[in-house]
Amino acid sequence: TNQNSDIQIFALAILLSSTFVYNTMNKIDQGAIDRLHKVTELTNLLRTRNSSDLNETEEPAYVSFFPDLVWTLRDFYLSLEINGHAITSDEYLENSLKLKQGSDERTQAFNLPRQCIQNFFPVKKCFVFDSPAHKNKLSQLQTLSIEELSPEFVQELSEFCSHIFTHSKTKTLPGGIQTLLSAKQEEICKKNVEASADRCSTLLESIFKPLEQEAAGGIYAKPGGHNLFLQKMEQLKAQYRQQPGKGTQAEEMLQKYLKAKEPLSNTVLQTDQALTAKEKERKAEQARAEAARAEAQRLEAIRIQEEQRRAEQERLHQEKLRQIEIDRANFLAQQQRIREQRIQACRSCWVPHDP
Questions:
Q1: Which spans of this chain does the record mark as coiled coil (predicted)?
Q2: Whole-model pTM?
């Protein structure tokens, strides 16, 4: 039932704790005591399971398993005094758990939960807390700074925390159970490590196998192939880390796998470097050939330009010579005409006249 489940959960919380903080409001009343009285049902549960080891006249062995009780009272509004005399919060707790005299049914019902609390929690401590802030700020409590809290509350909280940090001990068990628990823990941890290692090994093989097949197939045997290999490796590492249920050995197994695959990565790198060097040499040779072709083209263009220049000079020279010949012929012709005109004029002068 749910009630039995609650009891078992409560038993587990109690037995696993070295300090049990019981947090209630305002004051210690019968309701708070009755809720803590669940330990009586816990007693019956443990008695049933340990009946062979118990003697009704002896203190139950499991009492030594119980933690220290720290009862905290929030928004405490009572005055810490009895009959006009000031008392401590611890004395207030002890007085609240004090048994009544008498054997009637009502007195027994009153004493039973208090007696159980005293039996199961021989070490008890009580802290009372004022309201943490003024009532008009209580709705904003989660956003208030420490300076906005009540100084009394801050001081009480500091004392409570100091006690918890100072007096709370590591949970220990008597009778060599702690040696036994450590051995059991080691055994379980070892099994977990082995199971995690097996799971991670299978997962790594499944995820990284395609990469190994690609490398074997020469996918990365090209200039720049190592960078592509590393990029794919990072993608697969992310895929591996996203897989659930790997256990405690997840990262260690990944690192071991990557260490084992370093020779493959180095092979891809060396192939990349060799092919990259060849590619660089090929490109350098291509560049040199292109430079030589460009230089030859440049020189051929210069040669053609020079031939054209000389041909043009020769054409101009021949044209000039032809013009000189023409001019000379024209000049000689003109001179010839002038001589002929002079001769004709002279002949006219020599013609004899009639007497």
A1: 275-322
A2: 0.48
